[in-house]
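COMPLEX REQUEST
Ligand: copper (II) ion
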Amino acid sequence: MHLPSVISAALLVLAQGVAAAPSARSSTLVRKEWRTLTKDQQLGYIKAFKCLQSKPARTQSLYPGALTRYDDYVALHIAMTTQIHFVGQFLPWHRQFLSIFEDDLRETCYYKGALPYWDWSKDVATTTSFSESPIFDPVYGFGGNGAYIADISNLSITAALDIPGRTGGGCITTGPWAGINITLGPDYSFANNPRCLRRDFTPAFAHGALNTSVVAFTEAAPTFFQLDRRMQSLELDLAGVLTHGGGHFGVGGMVGEMSDMYSSPGDPLFWLHHGMLDNIWNQWQRANWTTRKSEVGGPDTMWAYPYNYFGDVPYKNITTAFVLAYGQLSSNVTIKQIMDTTAGPISSYTYA
Ligand SMILES: [Cu+2]
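STATUS: Structure written out below.
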């Protein structure tokens, strides 16, 4: 699982500058499922997204390959990877990451809506239906799969596990991001490494990991600790990979950007996938708000129990006092500050 770079990343991350103050809260935003947006709203989101990709980076002095204001987000995710995955702060960190991005789309690029999300459980009724999802529409969506490449021995493998049933591997050729260059990554790299956006759909795997029963199983978690585990992984093999890995590996397969634990925000679908995970967490919280508005848990250190697949690692259990860091992109916040989506430091939002 990219272990050498995991270790070096752990040593290198964090010494980042003073953050800008978050902008003032507007009225409550309603985050909607992509296919329920009007065509104008879909195009509005894509336009704002591309607008961020046309503005200069703010963090290039720290991350040389960060060329655009969008790359700032990819770079931060890469820098933070070993502190925000397979840890209890996984869901909280990504929640605020999405809000910072949503706020930037609105403040910098005059986007009028909320961040959309992608309910992939609507797309996996059969072992092949995933690829037919309207989210991959060439005009009103994010474009589709790469062409099938049978022999991937010359490509860099992005997935940490062997994902069966790959159907793509090529550069995407449809949609608003066909032909764009990704620069940051793969893995723990901040260099300018221009390459195309690859996708490698694994529809049969997505069918198993992202279906409505899996969502129901996740939502039925009795504790935050269990919820987090059901999302991130129950064990270190494919059978333990459910929603979080399901969305990443379902789109990214063996060689797609979405499968790269570090640079996966290079695929614009990253945000909509994580929006769905945040939606599930929020629904889980609202099902027993009194308790769950302040319930978190899990290790503060990567690969510690219950993710101790490579041996035991010392750790502490996180609490809501844990501080989430966003480098130069936004102020640090405590988990306590982001537990209620309608009362966050940047925005107030709900899911429809
Ligand atoms: Cu992530």
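REMARKS: The two ends are 36 Å apart (CA to CA). Confidence is low (pLDDT under 50) at residues 1-23.
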